[in-house]
Amino acid sequence: MSRSYPMRDLPQQVTVHEVGPRDGLQNEAAIVPVEVKAEFVDRLADAGHKVIETTSFVHPRWVPQLADAEELLSRLHRRPGVRYPVLVPNLRGLERALAHGVDEIAVFASATETFAAKNLNRSLETQFDMFEPVVAGALEAGVRVRAYVSMCFGDPWEGDTPIPQVVAVGERLLGLGCYQLSLGDTIGVGTPGHVTALIDAFGSPDRLAVHFHDTYGQALGNTLAALWAGVTTVDASTGGIGGCPYAESATGNLATEDLVWMLRGLGIDTGLDLDKLVTTSTWLAERLGRPSPSRVVQALSKG
Amino acid sequence: MSRSYPMRDLPQQVTVHEVGPRDGLQNEAAIVPVEVKAEFVDRLADAGHKVIETTSFVHPRWVPQLADAEELLSRLHRRPGVRYPVLVPNLRGLERALAHGVDEIAVFASATETFAAKNLNRSLETQFDMFEPVVAGALEAGVRVRAYVSMCFGDPWEGDTPIPQVVAVGERLLGLGCYQLSLGDTIGVGTPGHVTALIDAFGSPDRLAVHFHDTYGQALGNTLAALWAGVTTVDASTGGIGGCPYAESATGNLATEDLVWMLRGLGIDTGLDLDKLVTTSTWLAERLGRPSPSRVVQALSKG
């Protein structure tokens, strides 16, 4: 393999927060059998992932792709040292998660008024009424909580999201006791200077993660900018699955493999085995019935 | 449109060296009629491109896609202020180019021994015997010469290309009188720290351009790194055409649209009209019979 070429001012180690089984599969057109999901998660752990967001307790009416959350959790072969967080929208979801021995949850907030209304049926302000009891209940049960903040760079209705508005939402969530914010570019419009400006506006990158979608091809460049700004946790989806289920090889989440290629070249440790990730993505792509949108998977699975 | 978010230490202006008609079309499976090529070049100029690499005088046996170089040049509607360089491999090619009023040419060198042998039938050392008379003849005729250096980051046979070897090849070419080097990551394996290390090794970025292929999804992140290192000329291909002709939507050159999205977000002036580029790429994709691999084109031509 190639040698590495470090760069000034970048972290030495990065945690990849794998979101493929949850954010990836919930946005695929195909509904994947639970035994395939369980194998997918096991393979991700085998490739070295230490954080695998596994499923969601959102009501199956909204996300039929993840209706088998309970059964999936019961089928996992949990490994020591690997975390398997699940997304939890409300107290009912929290009860279900706790009943299945979940060790970490995530809540999903909006940085914009319109998306809060459309996705959560709340306002920017009243969405916290949803999160407060969930976060409090989780912490009381000894379960860590991560918070997604979606539409941090723009949304389809309001244009650019004002940075102070994102910071205000994020600080409310940290104030509730969330251990980390995942700043999401849900529609993929952000560019590197926007990324560093947002991270800098928080004052410290220590409790921030980034979550980029590759809709406009910006995900990896934006990740590089985030690393510069001091972020050390990056969300990615093995194979780049998810995003838009209606177009072939459409682009959703940043592909874990493309991220690992860059980090490995930079000499930044992730603990991940790229070959195993690519093999897993090729295996999953056959089951999804479409090629992986990851460039690295496409390149390495040829010939 | 979104506002821009500048970033420290980046240039205020970037020249996009458009390579679609030459490097793009020569690597497409489809052979495009000359009148479509002429319209493509005209549309690129209309979108604001100031440098459009138009075709190649390589022997048609090697590149049948560009066998119509002479006819294409005769059909161009040349605009004041726009340069239309062509690739020239040898003295015969230079004669043909000069006979058609070409105002700028490019030569194509290798940074590795194996690729020099396979692509040029020369050694790393003897390749300069080809370039010397071509560059001298062009300069004598008042024609500027750009030099491509291919395989600057690695090649399929030798692995990583040693940085001093790239610098030695590049400096020979500058010494012959080439006005600019285009440092090519022909197989797309480079990562950002490798990019900055190579640029820094030249001592100054002033006569350097970068030419990235997106085979492993690294092209735009690498471009960002190059801008940081002071480079202000970036090669790109409108629609991301070229690369591998044998796989649908396979990834070749960095897409001009994806580059412009990033630069526009950073507040870096290119003089390019993104909407016109996207319209051109959508038009060309229909003629090539495959979707554009550019993420921006895919996103903006939906719905």
TrEMBL record, chains A, B:
Keyword annotations: Lyase, Metal-binding
Q: Which Gene3D superfamilies match?
A: Aldolase class I
Q: What CDD domains does the record tag this protein with?
A: DRE_TIM_HMGL
**Which Pfam families does this one have?**
HMGL-like (PF00682)
A GO molecular-function descriptor: hydroxymethylglutaryl-CoA lyase activity
* The UniProt record lists the keyword Metal-binding: yes
Return the similarity comment: Belongs to the HMG-CoA lyase family.
UniProt name for this protein: Hydroxymethylglutaryl-CoA lyase
What organism is this sequence from? Answer: Nonomuraea glycinis
Taxonomic classification, please? Bacteria, Bacillati, Actinomycetota, Actinomycetes, Streptosporangiales
Per the record, the gene is: hmgL
